[in-house]
Amino acid sequence: MKEICAIIRRDKLQQTKAVLAETGYPAMTIQSVEGRGRQKGDVACTLADMDQDGASCNSLHVKLRPTPSTYALEHTLPKVALFVPKRMITLMVPDEAVDAVVQAIISANTTGQPGDGRVFVCPVEGASTIRTGERETAVM
């Protein structure tokens, strides 16, 4: 049995849940987290022109705005340590399902931009059911 922990963009949560359900693994724990990775909290803030109903973005008219960290660097101010809000998904899967689940998470979350997230895979030695006290070994 393996634990898969994925840190993803907040707006990709629903798509990720749908893909995992299609893969056969709908059970998961979801947490709201904040953190920073290699980009050290720098995120590309984009504001897109919205359609009249405000429902969809027109990707041809994207305006880039500086992030607070970039603004501080450009104006000789001390850099602010920013933590980016993300979602963390944790699920347990059998060893033979790890590759399929990781690929499903990656496919649902790839945008090609920094900040897409990370997926971690860890071994699980066992599990116990609290209500019954039943113990399971690492074999699922």
Instruction: Give the termini separation.
Output: 6 Å
User: How much of the sequence is in beta strands?
Assistant: 35-45%
Stretches with pLDDT under 50, minimum 5 residues: 45-63
Q: What percent of the residues sit in helical stretches (DSSP H or I)?
A: 10-25%
**Count of helical regions:** 3
Q: Total number of β-strand segments?
A: 8
CATH architecture of the largest domain: 2-Layer Sandwich
Largest sheet: 4 strands, antiparallel
Strand order of the largest sheet: 2-5-1-6
The sequence of SSEs as H and E is EHEEEHEHEEE
- The CATH topology label of the largest domain is Alpha-Beta Plaits
Overall 3D geometry? elongated
**CATH level 1 name of the largest domain:** Alpha Beta
Average pLDDT, rounded to a whole number, is 79
Q: What structural class results from the helix and strand content?
A: alpha+beta
Number of domains: 2
Q: Radius of gyration in whole Å, from Cα?
A: 19 Å
Question: What can you see in these coordinates?
Answer:
This protein has 140 residues and is of the alpha+beta class. It folds into two domains: 2-41 and 82-137, Alpha-Beta Plaits (2-Layer Sandwich), CATH 3.30.70; 44-75, no CATH class. 21% of the residues lie in helices and 37% in strands. It contains three helices and eight strands. The strands form three sheets. A four-stranded antiparallel sheet has the order 2-5-1-6, with helices on one face. Strands 3-4 form a two-stranded antiparallel ribbon.
